[in-house]
Amino acid sequence: MPDIADRLFDILSSPAFLSMKGLANEVPLFIHAYDAAKEDETRRMVDHLASRLRAVGVQLAQVDLFDLVLEQLDEEKRLQKIIEREAALGKAKILDMMRNLSEPESRLVPCLMKRIGSDDIRLTLLTGVGRLYPFVRTHSILEAIQPVMPSHPIVLFFPGEYVQEIAGSQLHLFGSAPNPKLSRPYYRAFNLADYRI
Question: In angstroms, rounded to a whole number, what is the distance separating the alpha carbons of residues 78 and 71?
């Protein structure tokens, strides 16, 4: 992973990347896919990458989306109630409740935008999407972010594969088959593996 970490550092610290040159009015949203079996290693790499970027003067936000959902529920005094009622409600009701309480368009992304909307921030690193599954799907986060994008690049670390084809793009969480419900998948996100400085 050292080669990947160095490559990401070179890309994310480059003035061209931070100023979003060459995007031709595209959304500055990037996906870095990684092997889900390397989750712990990747989390450590992202922490170290964030420290290195800050050390060279890149103002950034580092947000774990799962932690953000928990913080929001805790602030609303709902988290403890959910934990206390978990056994009585059962898995299906808890899953449905968590889907509603972390819905990307009305809840998760507005909370995220408050966190990363400062003019001082030049880059956002997002993690935790694998831990949000199955109550939040990554494609719904991407769709909700696009209309409210801040004026800086966002890099989403994705535990799986990001496959871009002529027919559309597919996110394969944990390396599994794509969601068959998405008949015409399209993400306006760049694959960071294809990015060149």
Answer: 10
Domain count, the chain: 1
Supply φ then ψ for residue 23, to 5 degrees.
Answer: -90, -10
Does a structural domain hold residue 172?
A: yes
For residue 14, the enclosing domain spans 2-65+104-194
Do the domain assignments include residue 119? yes
Q: Residue 53 burial (CB < 10 Å; 0-12/13-18/19+)?
A: buried
What are 52-94's pLDDT values in tens digits?
Answer: 999 999 999 999 999 999 999 999 999 998 888 888 888 889 8
The answer to whether the pTM exceeds 0.85 is yes
Q: Is residue 110 part of a domain?
A: yes
**What would the pLDDT profile of 7-48 be if each residue is shown by its tens digit?**
999 999 999 899 876 555 566 889 999 999 999 999 999 999
